[in-house]
Prior knowledge:
This protein has 81 residues and is of the alpha+beta class. Helices cover 38% and strands 23% of the residues. The chain has a domain of 49 residues: GMP Synthetase, Chain A, domain 3 (2-Layer Sandwich), CATH 3.30.300.360. It contains 2 helices and 4 strands, in the order βαββαβ. A hairpin with a 2-residue loop joins strand 2 and strand 3. The longest helix is centred in the C-terminal third of the chain and has 17 residues. 16% of the residues are buried. It comes from Aliivibrio fischeri SR5. It holds the Pfam family DUF2498. This is Protein YciN.
Amino acid sequence: MSDKKSISEADLLLIANQIIQDHENYLEGMRATSVEEKDEVLVFKGEYFLSDQGLPTEKTTAVFNMFKYLAHHLSKEFTVK
């Protein structure tokens, strides 16, 4: 049996967005707007700061890395109920 805490999507997003805001690589407007669980890994989604042409920007990489960081750290601790 898993030692993960069961948590609502809304509560998990509150925790994730606080972590984002407190992180040294935070960018204005960076936030997770949804989360889902796939094979015991939390997948965070939000604004990716694409260019007007729909292409990645430098901010896109920062957001991707932040969501990866959240998945790596929070997937060990939580499961979505």
